[in-house]
Amino acid sequence: MMKIGIDKMSFFTPPTYVDMVELAEARGVDPNKYLYGIGQGKMGIAAEAYDIVAMATNAANKILTAEDKEQIDMVIFATESGVDHSKSAGTWVHDLLDIQPYARVVEFKQACYSATAGIQLAMGHLTMHPDSKVLILASDIAKYGVNTGGEPTQGAGAVAMLLSGDPSILAIETNSATYTKDIDDFWRPTYSEFAYVDGKYSNEAYLGTLNSVWDRYKDQFGAQVSDFEAMLFHVPYTKMGRKALLELADEMDETTSERFEKYYDSGIVYNYVVGNIYTGSLYLSLLSFLEQGDEVAAGSRIGLFSYGSGAVGEFFVGEIQAGYKDALLKEDHEKMLENRIKFALEEYERVLSNPVSIDEEGNAALETKHTNAGDFIFAGINEHKRFYKKL
Ligand code: COA
Asked: Domains in the chain, start-ordered, CATH in brackets?
């Protein structure tokens, strides 16, 4: 059977971050709570010029060749930080990156889960159209607000994945298990700039959904944890994925448990310094595992748990492809993280509480400070129309 999966992938996070020790001290919290209890060292912050469109464009720009842009016939933009109720954020990306016009573009929403739905749609599409390519973008800004319980679990960034037949990185298996239950663990009403969350309940719902999909997967396909070389999870903050590993601990022998721990550690290197990027978080963890972890043998199977509050979850499996390390952009990603600037807390608070405001004519000029040369940025609004430019 034809293999379908991730042929290329990359991520982007804005050039500014908040240091978690400084944040803890300002909030009168023991820094170890953030560093170890929650498991975050830095938190990516998106200044005005980096909205979800700009971040996704920058992520995808690193991987797409002119040939890819001719072959892409579908762009799926997964986000829960939408900038328009009607227009898909992907339409701007399609234009900015010069993707051929005979492509369909759509935006998907289901909290942090929707990029996984994008992968499933792409799988079916590529089965029917094996010579095409699908671009999946997962881009979000996680905002709970200053002095809230969720404040240390914010972040900003985008992951771009190019799916095709004969993938270079990870082939996705067709068997998966999904689960949906209408709950209110985390949500953001259309009138609210910030997310509402019942933190403890969201942790329980995440773990409950993991059990539901994992049990279903085992029942349907006769699997056990040791079938997998590694297990990766949605990582809203790095402690959450550790709780997920612990949840499966009584099904592991010592060797499996040690292996999973080791790979989990390599799978959170990026998440630890980027923070929560909602739809992209599982895929940032996958990228971190692929780039920062020891090389694993071709054919190794990786279990992946995707979770989106509200709530939908899916357990699915990827198969490592020979030579996958050569298809990655490890150095580029490390350089991007090294070159970031630490935001003073006042500046971070200003950015967080100051959504772009438009004048009576529907115009807004945006500041371009805290931007990197060469990046695509959100440049402003003209008669209610957003516009972007490349610096
Ligand atoms: N040193 C080390 N660890 C410490 C500590 C210290 N000084 N103080 C507290 N901790 C630990 C706690 O023991 C706890 O560990 P545990 O989860 O393993 O029990 C952890 O830090 C968090 O402490 P807690 O008091 O539970 O934190 P909180 O009430 O501030 O809430 C979240 C944490 C994650 C629930 C909150 O930030 C939140 O709501 N985030 C957004 C929701 C979210 O991301 N949900 C995920 C599912 S999608």
From this structure: 4-169+328-390 (3.40.47.10), 172-324 (3.40.47.10)
Q: Tens digits of per-residue pLDDT, 9-66?
A: 999 999 999 999 999 999 999 999 999 999 999 999 999 999 999 999 999 999 999 9
Name the pTM for this structure. 0.98
Q: From the candidates 125, 234, 333, 370, which is the catalytic residue?
A: 234
The shares of helix, strand and coil residues in the chain, as percent rounded to the nearest 5, are 40, 25, 35
Which candidate in 48, 94, 112, 125 is catalytic?
112
Task: Determine contact, residues 64/135, Cβ cutoff 8 Å.
Answer: yes
Cα of 381 from ligand 1 centre, angstroms: 38
Residue with tokens 């689960």: 179
Rounded to whole angstroms, what are the CA distances from 147 to 26, 122, 150, 153, 346? 10, 40, 8, 12, 13
